[in-house]
Design a protein that fits this description.
Residues 7-18 have a biased composition (Low complexity). InterPro entries: MBS1/2-like, SERF-like_N, ZNF706/At2g23090_sf. Residues 1-32, 53-76 are annotated as: Disordered. The protein has helices at residues 5-25, 29-36, 51-61; strands spanning 39-40, 47-48. The termini are far apart. A two-stranded antiparallel ribbon has the order 1-2. The chain has a domain at 37-75. Strand 1 (39-40) and strand 2 (47-48) form a beta hairpin. By secondary structure, the chain is mainly alpha-helical.
């Protein structure tokens, strides 16, 4: 076990190492995934990544609701 001055140096070295690791890691996957969800269902507020998925969702989950105009020309 390190004691005294050596212990403090070891802690500082470890803190610097942890900071470098965190900086190097960059962005996290959760933020990137959230940014990809750009379409939001007006009925249930579920978010989808693309219009094709959005149309499939709308047709299966909300068949009685009128189709939004932005989904009219989308190929499913």
């Amino acid at each position: 076990m390190a004691r005294g001055h050596q212990k403090i140096q070891s802690q500082q070295k470890n803190a610097n190492k942890q900071a470098e690791q965190k900086k190097k890691q960059g962005h996290d996957q959760k933020t990137a995934a959230k940014a990809a969800l750009v379409y939001t269902c007006s009925v249930c507020m579920t978010q989808m990544p693309d219009p094709k998925t959005f149309k499939q969702h709308f047709e299966s989950k909300h068949p009685k609701s009128p189709m939004p105009p932005e989904l009219a020309d989308v190929q499913a």
